[in-house]
Design a protein that fits this description.
Blueprint: H1 5-18, H2 22-50, H3 55-62, H4 66-74, H5 81-91, H6 95-98, H7 121-140, H8 143-150
Helix pairs in contact: 1-7, 2-4, 3-4
Length: 151
């Protein structure tokens, strides 16, 4: 069975264009960390206020500027894991009291592998050339070897 290299190249190109571009996918995925950061910040702010802490006193206890503490509470700045532990210790709450419930975001979590990345046009051309070379090698091989190479 011979493959139509032009058809293979067109199909690869079509598959690549059907998938989201890397930039579009990055934009979708970036929204999840922002939403988690905002939910975390709102929870942190609620606990801080419930405990009667002023934002500047909390910032000093955390070892950050008041602006940084404000940005964390607004979800405008990500917080490091050691800061989550420190905030929990400052307020005397378990860490999970600061974290937004996982069920709010679980449906949005997507794990990607390198194989999920769409082929660029250059990669599709390189793949098509490789396929062409392999097919030429199969076609130029003696008949008894062709059978083995096609399997």
């Amino acid at each position: 069975m011979l493959l139509d290299i032009g058809l293979v190249t067109r199909q690869i190109g079509a598959m690549s264009s059907m998938r989201l571009s890397r930039a579009a996918r990055a934009g979708i995925e970036a929204s999840l960390p922002r939403r988690v950061a905002k939910a975390f910040g709102a929870q942190l702010q609620r606990i801080r206020r419930d405990r009667g802490w002023k934002q500047d006193a909390f910032a000093a206890a955390m070892g950050v500027s008041r602006t940084t503490a404000s940005n964390i509470e607004r979800g405008a700045q990500r917080i490091f894991l050691d800061q989550v532990y420190r905030a929990a210790a400052i307020f005397g709450v378990p860490i999970d009291a600061l974290l937004p419930p996982a069920h709010l975001f679980a449906a949005d979590v997507v794990v990607h592998a390198a194989a999920d990345d769409p082929l660029s046009r250059t990669e599709a051309r390189t793949l098509a050339k490789t396929v062409e070379e392999v097919l030429r090698e199969i076609e130029s091989a003696p008949p008894q070897r062709q059978h083995l190479m096609k399997e």
